[in-house]
Design a protein that fits this description.
This protein has 423 residues and is mainly β. The chain has three domains: 77 residues, Immunoglobulin-like, CATH 2.60.40; 117 residues, Immunoglobulin-like, CATH 2.60.40.3080; 195 residues, no CATH class. Helices cover 12% and strands 38% of the residues. The protein contains six helices and 27 strands. It has a six-stranded mixed sheet with strand order 3-2-14-15-17-18, with no helix packed on it. A hairpin with a 3-residue loop joins strand 10 and strand 11. The longest helix is centred in the first third of the chain and has 17 residues. It is elongated. It starts with a helix and ends with a strand. The N terminus is likely disordered.
Length: 423
């Protein structure tokens, strides 16, 4: 009785797993560029990541708990869709010419399909069809290479296993293959996982958050964001607003004990007077320096051409879009913690999901006495709107809650800067 119960729950588990659907995600560009050079993919829920060429297709493998053939992508083997119903494609690299045997066996080891082929060096595609409900082992054997993986079939119809040739792409140089061949790149994925794509094209990069529910093409809107030092920044569009997706880092570093002055050059502070902190967290700026000694809300200040310092109202619109002051911080903060080696915030980095793609980091601040405080724990960002003279509105986020608080600070304080795209 106990043995029957175990077997029953095993097959129920397999059945539930194979009902999940895989998703294919491709990429295209618009705006400043219509092509995508590369894409960094981060699964924020699982804390995994990979990078693919812009012409590649991301294969999100939703099935969990079985030995997925997708895990063998490093060896050049892909099986899709998997689970299969009527048929599945088998794609693999033959590193050199020679005879190859492709074999499919059922869970007992019985052979259900086999083919022998003389294959030239290159990338080959076959189909496997005619399988019935169950789990199968696929093996590809040649004198120069070997692949193996599993296929899950959900079909309940009886059939005869078949392996058929589809196509071959002859082997070429690695460089030309990267440019011309579209590859299917697998990534383990569970329904509801939050993904974050950073798409690159030349000087452009854009951040796109997504929870996939279907096959789709992700369109990257490439917007120029280049500062006076020719640094290029990632951007993110949230509803109708477009923001920089990283802190501004422009200007010449001066020590914290010095005041930033109106001297025809942009000056910045780096936390603890360490340039490496500017590279990680961006620069810190006094309000007047950031504004380039203007006082009108929405001025360009030290932002790139076509961008401006966000007003207090533009900040308020953003936090409202993201659930308001009590929730928006979690949706704006970058994920992970310093202690776990997965991020820049201190533990616990409460509620951080970065579902907006804003990717807020905790740069701390430079105080009015020239000292630095709160790196890794708090992030502070200026607006271009004064409360009273020498005092301006800002936003603060925290490592231990999900608020975005609005405070007025003295303009000699050094805070981070995010720029806002002109409408």
């Amino acid at each position: 009785m106990k043995k029957s119960t175990v077997i029953f729950f095993f097959f129920v588990s397999i059945f539930l797993k194979i009902q999940a659907q895989d998703y294919l995600i491709s990429f295209t560009g618009t705006g400043g560029s219509t092509s995508v050079d590369s894409v960094q993919v981060r699964n924020l829920t699982q804390n995994t990541s990979l990078t693919l060429n812009g012409t590649d297709v991301l294969h999100l493998m939703v099935v969990v708990g079985i030995d997925q053939t997708a895990a063998q992508s490093a060896a050049g083997l892909f099986i899709y869709p998997n689970p299969m119903n009527e048929s599945s494609f088998v794609e693999f690299d033959a590193v050199s010419s020679g005879n190859a045997t492709i074999e499919v066996c059922d869970i007992t080891g019985k052979q259900v399909a086999q083919t022998h082929n003389m294959l030239p060096g290159g990338r080959h595609t076959f189909t496997v069809s005619g399988l019935t409900n169950g789990i199968y082992t696929l093996s590809i054997v040649s004198a120069a290479y070997f692949y193996s993986g599993k296929i899950v079939c959900t079909s309940i119809s009886p059939g005869n296993g078949k392996i058929n040739y589809v196509s071959t792409k002859l082997k070429s140089s690695a460089q030309s293959r990267l440019k011309s061949v579209q590859s299917l790149i697998p990534m383990q994925y569970n329904d509801g996982d939050q993904l974050l794509f950073t798409c690159f094209s030349g000087i452009y990069s854009t951040v796109i958050p997504l929870v996939p529910t279907q096959n789709q093409t992700v369109t990257a809107n490439f917007v120029a964001c280049t500062d006076a030092d020719n640094n290029n920044y990632a951007t993110v569009t949230i509803d109708t607003q477009t923001w920089m997706a990283e802190n501004l880092n422009v200007g010449i570093r001066i020590n914290g004990i010095q005041e930033q002055t109106n001297n025809a050059s942009i000056e910045k502070y780096c936390y603890n007077d360490d340039e490496a902190n500017c590279a990680l967290y961006g620069g810190l700026y006094q309000w007047d320096e950031m504004m380039q000694y203007a006082t009108a809300a929405g001025t360009k200040g030290i932002c790139p051409n076509g961008w401006h310092i966000p007003t207090d109202g533009e900040w308020s619109t953003l936090t409202t879009l993201l659930g308001g002051v009590p929730l928006a911080g979690g949706r704006m903060k970058s994920t992970g913690t310093i202690e776990a080696g997965t991020g820049l915030w201190s533990t616990p980095n409460t509620g951080a999901t970065n579902v907006s793609g804003f990717t807020a980091v905790p740069a701390g601040y430079r105080g009015s006495n020239g000292t630095f405080s709160n790196i890794d724990n708090h992030g502070y960002w200026w607006s271009s709107t004064e409360n009273v003279p020498s005092n301006a509105w800002s936003r603060t986020m925290y490592y231990d809650n999900i608020n975005v608080d609005r405070y007025s600070f003295g303009s000699i304080t050094g805070f981070s800067v995010r720029c806002f795209k002109n409408l």
